[in-house]
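Exercise 7. Predict the joint structure of the components listed below.
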Amino acid sequence: MSESAIEIINLTKRFDDITAVDNLSLEIGWGELFGILGPNGAGKSTAINVLSTLLEPTDGSATIDGYDVVFDPDNIRKVIGVCPQEPAFYPHLTGEENITLMGEMHLVPKDVLRERVKTLVEKIGMEDHIKRRAKTYSGGMIRRVSMLMALISDPKIALLDEPTVAMDPKSRHAVWDFIRELKTQGKAIILTTHYMEEAQELCDRVAIIDEGQLIELGTPTGLMEKHHAKNLEEVFLKLTGKKLREEF
Amino acid sequence: MNLRRILALTKKDIKKTTREPAVLFLLLVFPIVLTFVFGLAFGGIGGGGTTSFEVGVLNLDTTGPQTEWANAFVDNLTHSDVFVVHNFEDNATGQAALLQGNLDAFIVLPEGFGDSIESYYGAPFDSSSWTNSSIGLYVDSGSLMAVSAVPPLVQEVLMNTIFGSDNIAIGLPIEIETPALVQSSDLSQFDFMAPGLFAFAAIFLTMIVSQSMTYERDEGLLKRLRTTPVSSSEYMISQTLSNMLIAVVQVALVLASAFAIGYRPSTGPAGIAFAFLISLAFSLVAVGFGLIAATVSKSADVATGISFVFIMPQMFFGTFMPLGGVTEALAKFMPSKYITDALTTLFLRGAPVTSTIIWFDFAVVSTIGIILIIVGIALFERFGSK
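Solution:
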C-alpha cells in the first residue's frame, strides 16, 4: 500500500480553450474522507474523471494507490470504485443484477459476492426492492443502487460524485451512515457534493475549488474558524461569491 | 482476458434482449412471423405437394366434326396436377378474371383447333397443307412463377393432346429431357425463398447492436464499465457472443417455423448444422456493421436510421429478391448473398455438405465478418465510445 491513497500534483485538464482543472495539487490519506466542493462548472467532476482514468490530464500528474493515472490505468481500476454524477445503470436488469454485474467485473468470488450484495442492500434499506427491474426505481433508489455498484468490489478508494443528489432526508442519512462506515474500514473516499451540510457532517477535510483552481483547503471546522463563519455554506459563499454558473 | 467477465457481460446482454419487448420481437418473434407470413403468401403452408395454377379456358371450337380435339385438350388440362381449370363462355369475362388476379392464365382455344390437328395428321410432313391456328394464351404478368412456368406446361399439355402420353414419336437423334420442369412444378415459391429467410432475419442484428452500443454510450454505461477492470476486448467479445447466440436461436426458429408449415429442405442433419455454422459467421457481419453504425451515430435513434444503410442493400441484394443486371453485380459485394447462395445450394438443390461451393460461401462470409468486426471495434474504440 502506498503512503498516500491519492496524490495529485499540478494537475491541469483543458478542453480546447477551456481550462476545467487548473494546476490542482492535493494529497489524500488512507482512511480519510475528503470533500471536493465548488460551484457548478468548478471542475469537480473533471477531476474525478481524471482520477477514474476516464480522462487523461493535459498536464501534471495523479497517482492512485501509487499507480499513475496515465501509465497504469488497469491497476487503478482494480482498486477504485466510482459512483458517477449521472447514475449509469441497466434499466432492464434488477437492482441486484446491476450490483452483481459490477462485482463480476472485479472478479469478486461468487459466494462472497452473493453475501456482500445481501449485506450492502440491507444497509441502504433496499432489500424490499432489489429484485425489481431498475427502470421502476425512483431517483433516490437509483442513486443508492448506483452507489452500491461502485462499492460492491470493496474498493480501497471510493470516488463518489454527488452520490446523494435527489435523495430524501431519510435516504440521505442512511447513505451518510454507510459512508462513515466505509471510512472506518480504512478506505480513502473522495466525495463531491453541493450540500454543504453533508460535507460539514462527513468530511475530514475539504477542498474548495473554483474555475478549476484550488482556493481553500482544510478541515470544515478549521475553515469556519478561519473565515469567521457559522457553517461551511457561509465559507463557501464567501469564497466563491453568489453568481450563478453553468456546469461543464 | 477473463472468461467470467465475458460471460457476465454476455448474460447481461441476453437479459437486456429478452426483457425488452421491442427487441425481443425484432430478434425472435419477427423470424417466426416472417416465416409464417412468407409460407402463407408463397405457398409453403401445406406445401410439399404440387403447385397449381388457376387457369381459365374459353373453347371456341364447339361446332363442326373435329370438336373432340378441343375437348381432349381441356380434359388433359383438367387432369394434369398442375392446373385448376375454369371454363368461360366469353373472352371478356375471362380477361376480366385474369386482370382481377383470379386467374394465373387464360387460354382461348380458337375455332378450327381440331381442324388444324386433323390437317396435320392428313399430311404430317407437308406443312403447306396444314390448316394453321393459334391458341390464345394470356398469363398474369404480376406472377413471376406463372409467367415462367405456365407457357411450357401448356405446351406440354398440347403435345400430349396431339400425340398422346407417349408423345413425340418422331424419331430424333437428340431429345430434351424435362426433369427440371417436372421437379420445379413440385416446389412452391416458398421453397425458393426459404434459404433467404435465414439471412433476412439475422440482418436486423445490425440495428440491435448499433442501438445497444449507442444506448450504453449515451447513458454512461460504457464509461462506468471503463472504471472497472473489464477490458475493451472482453466487452466486445461479449457483444459478439451474445449476438452469435441470438443468431443461433434465430436459425432454429426459422427452421422450426418452416418445418411447421411443411417446408422440407433437401438436406440432412449435416446440412442443417452447416446452416447454423454459416449463420454464426453471418452474425459477425451484422455485429461489425452494427459497430460501424454506432460509431457514426450520435444517438440510439440515429443509429436505427444509419443501420438501414447497411441493412437495406443486404436485404434487397442478398436474400430472396429477384436480381438481374446491375443488381446481380452489386449482390456480389453483399455478405448476405453468400449465406443465401450456400443455403440455396443445400436446401433447394440438395447438394451435399462436402460441396466446394458452400464452403467457399462460408469462407467469404467468415472473412468479411472477421474484417468487419475488427474494423468495427477499431472505429468504435477510436471514435464511437466517448
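Discussion. The domain at 6-240 of chain A is CATH 3.40.50.300 (Rossmann fold).
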